[in-house]
Amino acid sequence: EIWDFVSAFMARSGILRFQPWIARDVEEYVAVKSGLPLDVPYDAVHVRRGNSNTTESEGERFVAKYWNEAEKETTRAQRLMSTFKPAQAQKMLPKDYIPFTQYLRQFDDIDCHSEGKPRIVYVATDDPTEVQSEINDLPKDAEGNTLLTKDTCHKFKFVFSPFDPSLGFHIELDSDKGGCDERYSRNVASIADLTILAKSDVFVGEFNSNWGRLVRIFRLRMMSNDDSLIIGARPVLLKEMKIAWGHTYPGPPGW
After folding, report:
1. Distance between CA atoms of 37 and 25, rounded to whole angstroms?
2. Which end of the chain has less Cβ packing within 10 Å, N or C?
């Protein structure tokens, strides 16, 4: 818990502070380019695929474990092939990543919005095309809101983080990393995503990505005087955060 206390103190103290021009451009990006309505509550999901799942051995093990525990896929695939069209069955086969539905399942133990209102969910991902395809395959209600299943009370309305194909996502994967303008634009977009994820009502992510650990730091806060009246309370509070898969705790820095 000492690391949580240090992290919360660091986030509160203002030690981590952007240069004025970066703060200005990030604020403009969030207000103008993100597409996220800023006057209503929202949740956020971070889906990191790319090299965090396919090239890191621990990520590979978690992905394999997920699919192994889901079902015996060979038997299941054979059954699906005889029941569905091949294209439909292919979508149910194991992938080298955790499906988006696993992230949405983390909302199951959260109360649904009153009056059947949808949850606005900001999606930050390095695989927007595939995630959008997964969303398209999920059931919809009469208003076009997405449902995890037809029986669920949660409704989702997704807002994707903007993606400029010319900039890419991961600077280390690009043979041509671009000039200063491209690097700066990519960094502003990333910091804007971090800001949006950190301020969301509910955040769903994982700790296989360092991004998830960083978001957690900015969701920590030190207890107020009123909070400290609770006997046995932790010295810091964590804004609601759900872990979709992998380790449920990030461990100390450098872990």
Report:
1. 18
2. N
